[in-house]
Structure formats: C-alpha cells, structure tokens
Q: What sequence folds into this?
C-alpha cells in the first residue's frame, strides 16, 4: 500500500474489538513513526502503553481530575491505549511549539501505520490531559505534557461509510497581497 492509499483509507475507529498489537509489533511501527521531521533530531516525545489494569488506573486519575467519585470508563473502550507525551528538550534553535508538533507528528504517523497494519485507531484527548492527576499517573516529568491517547484495537466488521470530501481550496491560498 502506498502512503497516499494509506492516508486516503484512514478513518477513526471509535469502537474496536479486544484484539491489540503485541509490544513487538508496536515497537516495529514506532521505529518507523519516529522518522517524522524533527528539527535537530531532538526526539522530543515518548509513548506510554496502557493495557489491562493500567486503563483502570487512568480512569481513576481522570475521575480525580474532573472531581468525580466514579472512575471514568472511557479508557476501557480499547485494549491498548498509547499515551502521547511531548518531552521537551532544551534547545536554542527549536521552540517548544515545534517540539510539540514533532510529538503530534509521531502520533499521527503511528496512527496511519497502525491503521495500515489492520488495527482500529482513534486519537482521544480531553480538557483534563494537562491536569496534575494525569501527569502523576503517567509519571510525567516537569518538561513533559500529555497530548492525548491513541486508542487501539481490532477493527470490527464494519461497512465503509461515505466520508465527505475535503475541499482543498478552502484551506490553501497564496500569500496575501498588501
């Protein structure tokens, strides 16, 4: 499959089965996703896998962050969650926003690779991603920020729906003339 075909076929899978890639399979895909454009090769990102009871711990941390007594059930929607972390590096050439863009790029490339490998993926975030209970449960350092999670599982039997085509003219323009 070409990159163009993989991108054209990509969709978010809000519901997945209990199957998930092995650590070895995930590592082989991360090795490729890590080739994203990265000014100064800082590798300002890391990924944290959550399987099994780790998802319950995340649900409790989300509840703590939003002031709820009942653990959130959202993390149980997929057998594998991959936390995407921007891990900022000191640099006089590469600002924080660019380093966060690299971490986001790794997540997006990984989601494409997972989809191409036959896994259902959706990137989930929430207003609580930057909350202290979430930083604590993920073991984040002072120069790290949680960007969200890739929820990964098997693709269920699904009939392809029609996606509304994107009108590129609405998003591409030349430089304005003054």
A:
């Amino acid at each position: 499959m070409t990159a163009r075909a993989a991108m054209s076929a990509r969709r978010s899978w809000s519901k997945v089965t209990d199957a998930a890639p092995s650590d070895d399979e995930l590592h082989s895909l991360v090795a490729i996703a890590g080739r994203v454009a990265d000014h100064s090769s800082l590798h300002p990102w890391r990924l944290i896998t959550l399987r099994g009871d780790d998802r319950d711990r995340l649900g409790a941390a989300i509840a703590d962050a939003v002031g709820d007594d009942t653990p959130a059930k959202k993390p149980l929607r997929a057998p594998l969650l991959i936390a995407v972390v921007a891990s900022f590096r000191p640099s006089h050439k590469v600002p924080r926003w660019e380093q966060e863009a690299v971490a986001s790029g790794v997540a997006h490339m990984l989601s494409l690779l997972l989809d191409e490998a036959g896994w259902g993926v959706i990137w989930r975030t929430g207003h609580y991603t930057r909350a202290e209970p979430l930083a604590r449960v993920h073991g984040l350092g002072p120069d790290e920020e949680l960007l969200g999670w890739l929820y990964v599982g098997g693709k269920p039997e699904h009939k392809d729906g029609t996606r509304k085509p994107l009108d590129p003219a609405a998003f591409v323009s030349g430089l304005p003339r003054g």
